[in-house]
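can u do me a favor
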């Protein structure tokens, strides 16, 4: 009887160890995903600072949703492209991203939490550039080609309200 119990315990321990072994292999995949997402965010920073709509759009998924503050969401690539054209025709950005967190949720889904700081110049104004600061949440999807792209993106200002 004891030999039987030992055999069951040994088998149970072996079976229980298999998921742990699988999880131990995950960080390499997670590290690759994190590095790829960091790279995409750096590309986004550069595209914003150069007002490059095509480079921005290369970062968005086919079913993307862009949710800018105080605006309705732009749903789908055509609407997202239109939104960025409007943004870049109105302002010039000079921002840097601080990546606070990247978390892979599954094989093909992840999110990144960031903050950005810099300046914004209203193009229709003679005023000097003003402070620009936001907090952002990106939801990434790994597309068929293996690239991590923005499926959803939302941001909100961290600048104090005017007059404070």
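np, heres the sequence
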């Amino acid at each position: 009887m004891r030999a039987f119990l030992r055999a069951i315990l040994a088998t149970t321990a072996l079976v229980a160890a298999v998921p742990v072994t699988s999880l131990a292999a995950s960080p390499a995949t997670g590290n690759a995903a994190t590095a790829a997402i960091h790279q995409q965010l750096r590309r986004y920073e550069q595209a914003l600072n150069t007002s490059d709509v095509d480079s921005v759009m290369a970062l968005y998924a086919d079913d993307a949703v862009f949710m800018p503050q105080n605006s309705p969401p732009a749903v789908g690539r055509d609407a997202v492209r239109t939104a960025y054209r409007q943004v870049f025709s109105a302002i010039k950005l000079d921002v840097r991203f601080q990546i606070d967190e990247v978390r892979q949720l599954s094989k093909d889904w992840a999110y990144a939490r960031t903050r950005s700081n810099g300046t914004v110049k209203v193009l229709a104004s003679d005023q000097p550039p003003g402070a620009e600061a936001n907090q952002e949440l990106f939801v990434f999807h790994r597309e068929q080609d293996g690239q991590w792209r923005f499926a959803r993106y939302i941001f909100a200002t961290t600048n104090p309200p005017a007059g404070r």
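Residues 10 and 24 are 21 Å apart (CA to CA). hope that helps!!
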